[in-house]
């Protein structure tokens, strides 16, 4: 099955809101980004990024607050995407709120890069 024919999935991974979560996110961010680059190069993640607070839109870069992650993936199965999420350092180290993560199949109405 070619990449473009694989099922697509939407992932919403909000951060915990407890004190210290943002600092923990920043302390392990390089490891998270290095892993994401590998997954992106393999074609599994098609679009991804950090979620920001609404106030971050008018804040300078150093004042922007990261509050979660989201991405669109292509994979053979829902279980494959869930495994990818569960193997991420943000999941393992408790940055993402495991109880609030959403992974759903999706059908794109527009082209996905």
Please tell me about this protein's structure.
The protein is α+β, with helices and mostly antiparallel strands. The chain is 30% helix and 26% strand. It is built from three helices and four strands. It has a four-stranded antiparallel β-sheet with strand order 2-3-1-4, with helices on one face. It is globular and about 40 Å long. The protein starts with 7 loop residues before the first strand and ends in a 7-residue tail after the last strand.
- Share of residues in strands: 25-35%
Average pLDDT taken over every residue: 94
Q: Numbering strands along the chain, what is their spatial order in the largest sheet?
A: 2-3-1-4
Report the helical percentage. 25-40%
Radius of gyration from the alpha-carbon trace, in angstroms: 14 Å
Major pleated sheet: 4 strands, antiparallel
Instruction: Report the uncertain regions.
Output: none
Number of helices: 3
Task: Give the overall silhouette.
Answer: globular
**Helix/strand-derived class?**
alpha+beta
Short overview:
This protein is α+β, with helices and mostly antiparallel strands and 113 residues long. Strands 2-3-1-4 form a four-stranded antiparallel beta sheet, with helices on one face.
Features:
26% strand; 3 helices; 113 residues; globular; alpha+beta; 4-stranded antiparallel sheet
Write the layout of secondary structure elements.
Blueprint: E1 8-14, H1 21-41, E2 45-52, E3 66-74, H2 78-86, H3 89-92, E4 102-106
Antiparallel strand pairs: 1-3, 1-4, 2-3
